[in-house]
Amino acid sequence: QVQLVESGGGLVQAGGSLRLSCAASGLTFSSYNMGWFRQTPGKEREFVAAISWSGGSTSYADSVKERFTISGDNAKNTVFLQMNRLKPEDSAVYYCAAAIRSSRWLTAMTARDHYNHWGQGTQVTVSS
Question: Which of 14, 65, 76, 90 is the most buried (most CB within 10 A)?
């Protein structure tokens, strides 16, 4: 049974930082590319960042470029999202997702339906 468990969310002031973690179990981590998405009430879940299984390729939404960094630790089956210079508009539930390795990865990594497994989400709230 595949499980993705996010942690690290919380309340932070604008300009502050948080580091989200996603611990994966029940899958062969090196067979998956990983992503982070976020969602606010009444809106669709949106792409934030993604990283290839090897860590050699990353991608970011324009809204978080230069502020967020995605990384992974294959030895610990964990992916991280370092979020710096947080803004109130970054407030959302953040979800970790896993996509089995595919030739479509480079073109599909921002698409929700490309991912096979999802975590339960962790709340991030940024106060102004």
Answer: 90
